[in-house]
Amino acid sequence: MVMTTNQMHTTTVTANTDSTTTTPVAAVADGITRAADTSGTPAAGSGSTRLDFAKTAPKVFRALIGFDAAAREGLDPALVELVQIRASHLNHCAYCLHMHTNDARRAGESEDRLHMVPVWREARHFFTPKERAALALTEAVTLVAGSGVPDDVYAEAAAHFDDRELAHVLALIFTINTWNRVALSTAKRAGTDTRG
Q1: In the chain, which residues have pLDDT < 50?
Q2: Which of 3, 22, 81, 141 is placed for a possible disulfide with 173 were both Cys, Cβ 3.0 to 4.6 Å?
Q3: DSSP label at 67?
Q4: CA–CA dist 188, 193 (Å, integer)
């Protein structure tokens, strides 16, 4: 998930320098502070306001956008959304979950598959072996404090992705976990993303 402020709205990041098309990163780049901005809005139950991360730490924010764009390079857009959706489920990030399920729908993802992401092990036939390997790796990395990244999970992912792809999948998992933490820490509300 990539988010920008109104001031950074014109930023365009391309995921592939060999391509003339703009990556979804630029389209996604309207999230945390642009869309129905909740900065200045009391956080749930706190009575206080949360900072506008993009405005308060613009250099850090731009670095995250660049990291996100680089992570996506060369990855199947459907796989990107599945990874972001699963991590957002695990992190209980309703803001990012809402954003990425909508992005997936706009990209042509089926409702059946979207509904099955949280229970992908019980609905294996909805996902390719490569997608299942990415979902398992997403869970292990997202929940890394519990039991690390098991060798069998890593080996399964390595069997489906070459080294470069695997590095990008890992980077994608790192970025969505970071975006989830940004959204949760700044009390972003699901459904306030107004990107077209």
Answers
A1: 1-44
A2: 141
A3: H
A4: 9
